[in-house]
Amino acid sequence: MELVVARIGKAHGLRGEVALDVRTDVPEERFTTGAVLATVPPDAGPLTVAATRVHQGRWLVQFAESSDRGSAEALRGVELVVESGESDEEDAWYPHELAGLRAELADGTVVGEVVGLEHLPAHDVLVLRETGGERTLVPFVHAIVPVVDVPGGRVQLTPPGGLLARDAGAVVVDRAEDGPEQGSDEHEDEA
Description:
By secondary structure, this protein is mainly beta. The chain is built from 3 helices and 12 strands.
């Protein structure tokens, strides 16, 4: 199974360097000089790491196949992938292991199916297709997804009220009473 280890971002400088949106816990192992990485789409690679550096907390990579800004810009959005088996770490899962898992509440009520994982700036989110067909993003944090049982084919959710589309009818919005209109004369000027 192919595992995405990074997505190529914008070009950095004039000599073909690119910024990476890293999706691996071990970038120093994945992006060593000389490493050859497959790509999605396949016709963009394979790409050979020529040099790496970390600049302001961001990984910058130059590939042997990209020596100027124009060729670096052409790589923007390309995913770098490696072949991988199943995760052997406890509490660590690859996106392909999560897709297809049944999503259920603590009482066993099935609320949908995990169709993917998205990487957002704050944290990852599970992409859930609810039983009614709605697409819902569920923060992939322990407080909301306390159980991930890949062998059992399920994730357990403890969502706060209103997170799932199925709860939309039960959401109560408390609106503050409208205050005075702007520009109205509530108080008479005293003479």
